[in-house]
Amino acid sequence: MKVLSPVIVDGESLTIENFVRVALFGNPIYLTEDAKILADLRASRDFYWECVKKGLYAYGGGTGVGSNVVHIIPLEDRIEFQARLIDSLYCGVGEELAKKIIRGSILLRTNALVKKACSAIGTDKIYKCIELLNRDIAPIMYEDGSVGASGDLVPLSSIAEAIQGKGKARYKGRVWITAELFAELGVAPLTLEEKEGLSLVNGTSVMTALAAFALYEAYYLTDLSLACAGMAGEALLGMTDPLHPFVHEVKNHPGQRQAASFLRELLRGSHLTRDLENLRTQVIESVGDSNHTVKTPIELQDPYSVLRCVPQLFGPTLEILELVERWIVNEMNSANDNPIVNLLERKIHHTGNFSGFYIALGMDILKLAIFNIADLMHALQERMLNNKCNRGLPPSLAGEDPGFNSGFKGVGLCGSDIFGKVCFLSNPYSIHRRSAEIGNQEVVSFGFGAAEYALEQIKKYQEQVAEVLIHAVQALDLRTGRDTTQLAPKTIEFYQQVRKKVAFLGADRPMHDDIVKVVRMIKNHKFQLDSVKA
């Protein structure tokens, strides 16, 4: 059995890579052994109790929550209040969130509770979160219920319920009553003391987990789409002159330069791409000594989608992904609780750090970035299918006897439908936010929903990329007579991976299973991109 390396939780150093290792691949986590961090966690809780003993009223501990803040809770009722608060929030509906999202949420909540000891929660609750993760116990969360203000109150209540041995959880593929599962495994439930329930639910951990996975998939899809655009450009006999380093040096944008470098590496050694100087020579020969306007069959400039504008289009998407990553990683390593303890100045601050506006806007921007490249993919698909502009390929990429065989006509229709849904899902979700909690939360983020819809768009775009990849491989076969020696060496790698799953389309056949196979390859990140990016 492979031993998975642990990820250390210290409130400061989580990355997207480590997040995915824990949430998706099941790596264990451990609380840091840093003596200062551990001492601060204990000191923060002690300071909070000192304040309580002095009669200081802190929000959500000695007071009601939200619009009920004007209600002062007697000391003897505060433990029961925490339990009742969590029960009241345990009301999510809709489909269950995926296990990877739940695991990611527990990881991020744990990290937030450790951050500079701001949450003043007992370390026993932190260790219990770690135990849930390492035992692979997933408290059931649902897709509906969070407006992304005061954090993900409703979905995070599932973690708080589980810590108390309440609610439901998934374990080894089965849904359990958490109390029964704990009894079966010998896990001890805990009692939430003053503020601790609020510390567990007041934060952005679920929306950030959704966002982190959306970004993780977006990075992979963007690179794969760039490779697909290069393959399609090769099949359409594109020119490499627009990829020359000088062209992109003078445009200034690093994302554009990165995309051009990727395409140059991918297409190096291709016998299908065309050289501008050779084409100019051909034009001179075809025109001869004529002093009249002469129409030549030789095109000295490609359409936008055929390599010429691909770096310019992918550049902003690549840079947006980097921006969104900064926002997500900052949120992952943030104190997003309320109230928070300032140990240095020995204060308790009432804050709005639970707000998910960075996640909301980040996800809405991410969806536009995905639309940007999806638009190019659709343009390339349509160009490859159209025998009026695909430079000699048969209509609808029919493998034999065009007209009698419809080729990719149906697949093209399917692709246009999928692209339409990608476009629809590109619309911002955060602009639909509404006042909540009887006016106390009058401006909410809708970060949770924005991240959910970003993942839904990603799902559709995976299907679109699968279809365009199949189109590109078919076009390359038709262009070369299935002679792969004409392809760039690195194009061959992608070509062969598709062809292992999808045979050349000669006579018409049902394509559903073929498309599903490639979609599955994309979802499982089977296409290796590192050799091109290097």
Describe the fold and architecture.
The protein has 534 residues and is mainly α. Helix content is 54%, strand content 5%. The chain has 20 helices and nine strands. The chain has helices at residues 16-23, 35-53, 78-89, 99-114, 123-134, 153-163, 178-185, 196-201, 205-235, 245-249, 254-267, 276-287, 304-308, 310-332, 357-385, 409-425, 447-480, 489-499, 512-523, 530-533; strands at 7-9, 29-31, 93-96, 138-139, 142-144, 168-171, 174-177, 340-342, 347-349. The strands form four sheets. Strands 4-6-7 form a three-stranded antiparallel sheet. A two-stranded parallel ribbon has the order 1-2. Helix 15 packs parallel to helix 17 (447-480). The longest helix is centred in the last third of the chain and has 34 residues, at 447-480. It is elongated and about 100 Å long. The mean pLDDT is 95.
Give the secondary structure arrangement, pairings included.
Elements: E1 7-9, H1 16-23, E2 29-31, H2 35-53, H3 78-89, E3 93-96, H4 99-114, H5 123-134, E4 138-139, E5 142-144, H6 153-163, E6 168-171, E7 174-177, H7 178-185, H8 196-201, H9 205-235, H10 245-249, H11 254-267, H12 276-287, H13 304-308, H14 310-332, E8 340-342, E9 347-349, H15 357-385, H16 409-425, H17 447-480, H18 489-499, H19 512-523, H20 530-533
Parallel strand pairs: 1-2
Antiparallel strand pairs: 3-5, 4-6, 6-7, 8-9
Class from helix and strand fractions: mainly alpha
Counting H and I runs of at least 4 residues, what is the number of helices?
20
**Largest sheet, described in full?**
3 strands, antiparallel
Radius of gyration: 28 Å
Question: What portion of residues is helical?
Answer: 40-55%
User: Which term fits the overall shape?
Assistant: elongated
Low-confidence stretches: none
